[in-house]
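Board notes, transcribed. Complex of a protein with 2-keto-D-gluconic acid.
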Amino acid sequence: MKPIVFAASNISPLYQRALAQHYEVLGPMPVADLMAHPARGSIEVIVGSGESKVPADMMDALPALRLVSVMGVGYDGVNVAHAKQRGAMVTHTPQVLNDDVADLAIALMLNTTRRLPQADRFVREGHWLKGAMPLAKKLSGLHLGLVGMGRIGQAIAHRAQAFNMPVSYTARSAKPELAYNFVADVKSLAAQVDVLCLITPGGASTHHMINAEVLQALGPEGYLVNVARGSVVDEQALVAALQAGQIAGAGLDVFEDEPRPLEALLAMDQVVLTPHVGSGTHQTRQAMADLASDNVNLYFAKSDVKTPVPECQM
Ligand code: 8YV
């Protein structure tokens, strides 16, 4: 009999395939159904993605729970405090996706300022026959402001050097070892930069961090790029700022209500939208699936997991 693991949500087929070798994957299902499941008393592991919700009641439905293994660097949907209270470990998949997410951030900066999706449509729809496309905005040399300076933020800053972009950042604390300019708060950062790029964790501490005030500070020549979590942005304020021309444009890979971005954003020409594909390459998602399943395998082998979340590190 293979041990049963519980899927908190639909998970990547790559994760499914890695797990299926050694485990039976149960779920996803509502907690009420899980409570009625005959095997729930023996389930020790919950698996999920970076968007999975793993609340206290789901954990409490599994009295033998010892591990939550997330295939994602973000785990803001996991009640980590409750997991720890239950004596369960939480793991995620940091590092392996740094390049992809940083590449996408730069791509969104380029696509948003140079209006490349609009240029593609301009050609396809025959507008070029009637004249040249309107001029866009030069990216190279713009002042980049990073909200978050963790591993992925540093990868974005490194790429920005190739575009001669001065880099400032805000984070929980300054990182003096880095050659970038630290700014104590996000509103002051927005006021100083041309492109504000979000790469901070989701969750309560960053919820709606980007609000009307911050967007006003970013200004009518400013661009917002979000490769973090949709929850970091007050989307109603963003729509209002875009409609009023208070900012020039936005490049968004994440949204408060995925997969249903606000209709108003879908209708805007000055917005570039991608469907949460920050880590969405074959190579990176395979590496994430491998790492997440390694954590499960190490748990069952009674060995130390590879990548506990910071809150669970000894
Ligand atoms: C994916 C992500 O959406 O890593 C994260 O936190 O948001 C993305 O990599 C997803 O988590 C992959 O399972």
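The mean pLDDT is 98. Residues 12, 49-51, 71-74, 97, 276, 278-279 surround 2-keto-D-gluconic acid (CB under 6 Å).
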